[in-house]
Design a protein that fits this description.
The chain is mostly helical. The protein contains 7 helices and no strands. The chain folds into 2 domains: 92 residues; 57 residues, no CATH class.
């Protein structure tokens, strides 16, 4: 084993700088107070910002919703988020469960799996309900449907039960 000191290169320094800015932007005192008050260890805006950069599954290729980073850079991101005490408790579960879902899921009836990113945006409508901006290109290629349709089909309920009221063209989805 090599226990020598690691000196970050320019790529690592750029990632660290961008991540520090992201943490400063999203991990405000208001967010920290909310986490303390509610006990919730989840901040969706921060998770979405990480997902846009492919940093949730950073070692995966951009086509799979990741950033295609080497293991050391991906680990560096995780360490910095942990050091900042970022409220991202569910990311570990996502990383643990996703490989099993990908391996054993039935593509004919499963919901969207791939994280939206700059190279894999969630801009396609669901083939089942038609609601816009639900799936990534990778989801469409794999034959997935949106989470609401998958849930409705699993429960045997109406697809529109899980949707907001109104015309799909007029309702904004995150």
């Amino acid at each position: 084993m090599d226990f020598s000191t690691f000196e970050p290169g320019s790529d690592e320094l750029l990632i660290r700088e961008e991540l520090a800015g992201l943490i400063d932007e999203h991990l405000t005192e208001e967010v920290r107070r909310r986490v303390e008050r509610t006990g919730s260890r989840w901040d969706e805006p921060l998770a979405l910002a990480l997902g846009e950069r492919g940093w949730i599954l950073a070692e995966r290729s951009p086509e799979e919703g990741g950033a295609g980073l080497p293991g050391l850079q991906a680990e560096m991101i995780d360490c910095e988020l942990e050091r900042a005490e970022a409220p991202l408790m569910a990311l570990g579960l996502t990383r643990l469960v996703l490989p099993a879902v990908e391996r054993f899921a039935d593509p004919g009836g499963d919901s969207a799996l791939y994280a939206a990113s700059a190279t894999n945006p969630r801009v396609f409508p669901c083939g089942t309900c038609g609601w816009p901006n639900r799936l990534t290109q990778a989801d469409v290629a794999a034959g997935y449907q949106c989470d609401a349709c998958a849930t409705a089909m699993e429960r045997g309920t109406d697809v529109n039960y899980y949707e907001p009221e109104g015309d799909p063209e007029e309702v904004e989805h995150e």
